[in-house]
Amino acid sequence: MPSRIIEWIDQRFPLTSFVKHDLTDYPTPRNLSYWWNFGFLAGIVLVLQVATGIFLAMHYKADVAVSFDSIQHIMRDVNYGWLLRYMHATGASAFFFVIFIHMARTLYYGSYRAPRELLWWTGQGLLLLLMATAFMGYLLPWGQMSFWGATVITNLFRATPFIGDQVVIWLRGDYTVGDATLTRFFALHYLFPFLIIGGVLIHLVALHSVKSSNPSGIDLAAKDNIPFHPYFTIKDLYGLGVFLIVYSVFVFFMPDSLIEPANNIPANPMQTPNHIVPEWYFLPFYAILRSVPNMVGGVVAMGLSVMMFAFMPFLDRSRIPGGARYRPLYRLQYYLFLLDMLVLGYVGYVHPTDQTILVGQIATLCYFASFFFVPFISKMEERWLIKRGLPAEVVTLMKSESLEIEKRKLKHSRHNGVKS
Amino acid sequence: MNAFLKIAVLCSFSVYAWSSEVKLEKVTLENDVPAIERGAETLMNACHSCHGMKYIKYRDLLTFGMNKQKVDGWRADQSLDAPLLAQMSENDAMLAFAKVPPDLSLMTKARDGGVNYLYSYLLGYYTTAEGVTGNHIFPETKMPDPLGISGAATPEQRTEIQGQARDIVSFLAWAADPHEAERIRLGYYVIAYLLALTTLLYFVKKQIWSRLK
């Protein structure tokens, strides 16, 4: 009977072939390490955020007169409201944590390289959507940091040429951040996650077209690929267990460690907190913003700093596969870049003094320099490594990779030929 | 005007630099009902005339397990579902302090340093040689020394006031997060469950991957 139902469906909808193509027979490199778990984890966090968010929206009120109170209503009176709210607030941090590791893995192993550029760029788009969603969600509790954070960030749009002032008013719906801003941020904060879900589907279509990269940096022969299910479903579930333990420690034992004390004070437009800080996941970019003395320059630098990752497929000119694995200079550069991010994060967090501003400017310079020098260093490194003699396995990998590219080009031109 | 600005900037910097140097005293809270009830009682006597706690209703105190007679005494003719609003009206407070005393419901979460900050602040009052009262932790405060620590003459008096401060902070910590005890209890179960589940998943993973060799 069930097989007859499936047959009935299959004649009308590609159910079996979809499951086969994308799950049971989906070829996955067997050498993937646990660093490849984080895309799946990001998907789970997205589901968690949408699920808790919808229930929070049932009790939350977007109105400057009562939104702070409605959060306290959720925390105190709603059944397990405290759990929903702490899961959602912690989930935002968890989302960025998982995404940053996901990106760091891509950068380390060079997963952004051909033919995965579109996969990388759709991911970059998702990052922007995630940042926008997190930023708008942070206004909703209507605490001091919510209000002043939104004021500072919307104010940056004043840097738009010619129509800056109008853009700011258009974004806020008022001359200052107020009720109009709160209601529109709430509406958009509910909408954006669904755009993210759409973006994730595109990201997955791109992934399933080019398949996963792997630590060796080249596409493995068919014999080294294993079906996604059951090998990676169970590996992902085990990783999920570990992730949920860490997440639960935060949710149940230290949920306030990720909430600024000032956000437990209702928003007061008449009183600026003596220290406005964004959430931890925005700190490096905030530090870059503050490092440029000129406002327009700062905004451009901050926007660029987020978008720089998209240029990596063009900047990295080395043909040696495996990302940092076989490339000592790139590896060094990678770790220095991570260190630089931490320095920027620290500078973004502390109250600015002459020293921290100087450190921030140097770190900002290093941030952009590390991207700027990638083309030269990667080319130089390639020449040096080839002269020194690459390990035999890498040479074989490179040969098969260039063959692959040739084959793909051939296939592509033939495909186009048929069309025209 | 320029000189005034310079002085203002210097003052604000020195206050910032100074306040960040102040060491907070560490307080170990008690979270049993008697301690929190003692804290509520001290707060009702020492703070409630000016400070409200709008997110706490008298009924919450009963539900938590406080003595009904005491709660009835505090609420007088107000309903059980009335919030613990300040006895002083906001207008009177503005006249007296030029500032409305802040609501205390979330106070332990609303300050850097949390419970340690509040404890140190309550005990931070001192009297100068000229007889002026100041506060080490929050020099700009408008609040008069509520527990009388600046006038404490003997070590016994100081110890007693320290105990009162600890009780008040215990009560405020409960009020800021009434579900904390429940949250931590549930947390142990959740973590235990996840540890067991993850261990099982680890062995299933090992078993499945062993087919590959």
Assign the CATH class of the largest domain in chain A.
Mainly Alpha
Structural class from helices and strands of chain B?
mainly alpha
Q: CATH homologous superfamily of the largest domain in chain A, by name?
A: Cytochrome Bc1 Complex, Chain C
In the sheet with the most strands of chain A, the strands line up as 1-2
Number of helices of chain B: 8
Number of domains of chain B: 2
The low-pLDDT segments of chain A are none
Shape of chain A: globular
Using the coordinates shown, work out and report the CATH topology of the largest domain in chain B: Cytochrome Bc1 Complex, Chain D, domain 2
Q: What is the beta-strand fraction of chain A?
A: under 5%
Query: Level of helix content of chain B?
Result: 55-70%
- What is the CATH homologous superfamily assignment of the largest domain in chain B? Cytochrome c-like domain
Tertiary shape of chain B: elongated
Largest sheet of chain A at a glance?
2 strands, antiparallel
Would you identify the CATH architecture of the largest domain in chain A? Answer: Up-down Bundle
Total beta strands of chain B: 4
What is the first-to-last residue Cα distance of chain B?
Answer: 82 Å
CATH architecture of the largest domain in chain B: Orthogonal Bundle
Greatest chain-chain contact: A-B, 33 and 31 residues
Derived structural class of chain A: mainly alpha
Commentary on this structure:
- The complex is a heterodimer of chains A (420) and B (213).
- Chain A has helices at residues 2-10, 15-24, 38-57, 67-76, 81-109, 117-139, 144-155, 164-172, 179-210, 228-253, 283-291, 295-307, 312-315, 328-349, 354-372, 374-388, 392-419; strands at 27-29, 225-227.
- Chain A has 420 residues and is mainly alpha-helical.
- Chain A has 2 domains: 21-256, Cytochrome Bc1 Complex, Chain C (Up-down Bundle); 282-389, no CATH class.
- Chain A has a two-stranded antiparallel ribbon.
- Chain A is globular, with a radius of gyration of 24 Å.
- The two termini of chain A are 47 Å apart.
- The mean pLDDT of chain A is 93.
- Chain B is mainly alpha-helical.
- Chain B has 2 domains: 22-178, Cytochrome Bc1 Complex, Chain D, domain 2, CATH 1.10.760; 181-213.
- Chain B has 8 helices and 4 strands.
- Chain B has helices at residues 2-21, 33-46, 58-64, 68-75, 90-97, 114-122, 155-176, 180-210, and strands at residues 53-57, 83-84, 125-127, 133-135.
- In chain B, a hairpin with a 5-residue loop joins strand 3 and strand 4 (133-135).
- Classes of the chains: A mainly alpha (420), B mainly alpha (213).
- Chains A and B meet through helix 4, helix 5 and helix 10 of A and helix 8 of B.
